[in-house]
Each structure stands twice: as C-alpha cells, then as structure tokens.
Design goal:
The chain has two domains: 229 residues, Rossmann fold (3-Layer(aba) Sandwich), CATH 3.40.50.300; 99 residues, Beta Barrel (OB fold (Dihydrolipoamide Acetyltransferase, E2P)). 25% of the residues lie in helices and 35% in strands. α5 links the parallel β7 and β8. α2 packs parallel to α4. The mean pLDDT is 93. Bound molecules: adenosine-5'-triphosphate (ATP). The site of adenosine-5'-triphosphate has 12 residues, from β2 and α1. It comes from Roseinatronobacter alkalisoli. This is ABC transporter ATP-binding protein.
C-alpha cells in the first residue's frame, strides 16, 4: 500500500514562497497529475515528495511512514524526468539494470526484470545498443523502463513527454497509461499540458501561485471548476466570463439577457465556448474572427464589450463583422463570486 499524504507542506526560497501549506492525499495506486503554468510550484512539490528538496514546513507520508527526513533512496520511489537521464555510455540493458544492481539484486532476477520491463516499453530489440545512439523517444522509453524495473510503490514523473514531438507524445501517452495502470504503482505526474493531464489522470491537482486550487477527477475539474482560475486555465479555448447584475427580482442581467442565478451576493457568469449555440434569443455577439478547425469553427467575438469565444458545429456559415445570437446551454452555465473568485454552487 502506498498512499501518499502531504500535510501542510510549504516551501520558501529566501523571501519567496513557492508553496503555501499544501495538503493533499493521493490514494494507493492512484494516478495523480499536478497541473499548472510554469512557476506554480508543481516541480517543487514533486521534488519535496522525492526528497530532492526539503520542505520549509509540513510532513510527507508514504505508505503510512513519515519520509520527509529520509533520503530519496529510502522512500521506495522511482523518478522519470524530461531530460531522460539515461547514461549514454551504458547499453540499454545496463541502464535498465542500473538501480537493480545498486540494490544488489541477484543476476538472474536482474535479467528477468530488465527483459520484462523492456518488453512493456517495446524496447527488447534495443537491449544491446548504447543509449547514446538512441532517439529521444527511445531514450525516454529506457528511462521509464528503468523506473518500472525497480517495481517501486511510487513513480514520480516530471514532464516525461515534453521533449517528444506531438505524434510520439500521443502514442507514448497512451502506452504510459496502459503500463502504469497494470503496474499498480501510485503515480504523481507533473505537466503543464492540460490535454495530457485530462487523458492520464485519475485526479488532477490544479496549481496556481503555490496553492492547489482544485484536486478532483478530470471531468469535474472541467465541468465544475472550483474557482475562476480553473475555468480560465483548463479548456482550449478556456471558459468565457461576463459580468452579471442582479435585476432586483431574483434574476441576473448578463449582457442584456436575463438568467436565473445565485440567490445572494455578487456573481460573474461563465460558460464554455462549446456550450453555446446559435439561436433566436441569447447573447448578442459581434464576430471578429472565424477559424475553421475541422469538425468545429472557432468564433472570436465581443459580447457587451467583453472578449468571448464560441466553438460551433462547422456547418454554420458565419462571417466576421456579423452579429450573431448565441444561447448558452442552461445547465452548463456556471457562476463565480467576483470577490473570492470561488464557484457559487
Ligand atoms: P516549471 O514548469 O517552469 O518547472 P513549476 O510549476 O514546476 O514550473 P517550480 O519549478 O516548482 O515551478 O518553481 C516554483 C517557483 O519557485 C518558481 O517561481 C521558481 O522560480 C522558484 N524556485 C524553484 N526552485 C528555486 C530555487 N532553488 N531557488 C529559488 N527559487 C526557486
């Protein structure tokens, strides 16, 4: 069992706070993705779990054992980074065997484990090659195989696919998901790529400015952002936001339209671009740019002077300069508190 519990973990670099008292529990065998823009603290959190960085405050527990005072090798984890870190002067076999030999595993066991994990990563045919001769993708397969060969309770990965081109990334993503699901490890995976996060994660922790803003299943994070930041960060294009004013009769004025909304307080209206469709009544959008994207067209417009995007079926003929009427799908409308920036239920 390798549940990971992070309790009140904070990290300061001098006067700069990279992490503010983070609490997070990752279940045994869960695939958790840390997602956020550059500088949000995701690598710092991963390095603290790995033992490569000391927290300024807080505790890290792995499998019921407090580990924040233990060195990395005593924590039962394997790591995979974006820069491969395979030894070019060793063969693929010796690279995968490296940690097993350090752990003084008997030779037949080393052989068995190397062949098995090389098989999982489809690199059996490369075992005798020197790693320095391999392509970036092959080296990354070696790095993953080496981590898996340790049969760790926990695998930590920091942007492991970011050096691959788009097509290979897609392929490796699906393979990683399959292999890690079978390996029964607990995985923490750092990325700034939201598509990668959505596709791989059991849960996503969305980070911003050293905080975890929301930790939930991908569909929840997408459909029910806990905060405005999550709606504005996840989704390509992201959520649209419009100011709302109470009409005094229990409804809200949004860009000249009336909507049912929250009972009290201030509110901001939010809708995803794909949750809009052309209709007789709705929001008046002045179309600025029309981009065909294959199955959809992306409309960039202004609604009540605010930037606004809609993703529509590609059979609509819409031209720049036109004013179109867009109706939001009622149960996809979300509301945020303009002061706290949190979602209003
Ligand atoms: P990236 O994807 O760019 O690595 P990240 O979300 O992983 O971003 P971190 O690497 O965790 O971000 O860094 C968080 C913040 O802490 C950044 O502003 C970074 O500049 C700062 N930081 C990280 N390591 C150090 C350090 N050793 N000394 C000073 N500041 C640091």
């Amino acid at each position: 069992m390798a549940e990971i519990v992070i309790k009140g973990v904070a990290k300061n670099f001098g006067s700069f706070t990279a992490l503010h008292s983070v609490d997070l529990t990752i279940a045994d065998q869960e695939f958790m993705v840390l997602l956020g823009a550059s500088g949000c603290g995701k690598t710092t959190l991963l390095r603290i779990i790995a033992g490569l960085e000391t927290p300024s405050q807080g505790e890290v527990w792995i499998g019921g054992r407090r580990v924040d005072h233990l060195p990395p090798r005593a924590r039962g984890i394997s790591m995979v980074f974006q820069n491969y870190a395979v030894f070019p002067h060793l063969t693929v076999f010796e690279n995968i065997a490296f940690g097993l030999r350090m752990a003084k595993l008997p030779s037949p066991d080393v052989d068995r484990r190397v062949r098995r994990t090389a098989g999982l990563m489809h690199i059996e045919q490369l075992l005798k090659r020197y790693s320095g001769e391999l392509s970036g993708e092959q080296r990354q397969r070696v790095a993953v195989a080496r981590a898996l060969a340790m049969e760790p309770d926990v695998i930590l990965m920091d942007e492991p696919l970011s050096n691959l081109d788009a097509l290979l990334r897609l392929e490796m993503r699906a393979e990683l998901k399959g292999v890690l699901a079978e390996s029964k490890t607990t995985t923490i995976y750092v990325t700034h790529d939201q598509v990668e996060a959505m596709s791989l994660a059991d849960r996503i922790s969305v980070m911003n400015g050293g905080y975890i803003v929301q930790a939930d299943r991908p569909t929840e994070v997408y459909r029910n952002p806990a905060a405005r930041f999550v709606g504005s960060f996840i989704g390509n294009p992201p959520m649209n936001f419009l100011p709302a004013k109470p009409d005094g009769a229990g409804r809200w004025h949004v860009a000249g339209q009336s909507f049912a909304g929250p009972r009290t307080g201030g509110a901001e209206f939010a809708i995803r671009p794909e949750d809009l469709h052309p209709a007789q009544t709705g929001l008046q959008a002045e179309v600025r740019v029309v981009e065909p994207l294959g199955p959809h067209i992306l409309i960039t417009a202004q609604v009540a002077g605010q930037p606004f995007r809609a993703l529509l079926e590609s059979d609509h003929t819409i031209t720049p300069g036109e004013v179109i009427t867009l109706a939001p799908v009622p149960d996809r409308i979300r509301w945020f508190d303009p002061e706290t920036q949190k979602a209003i239920a």
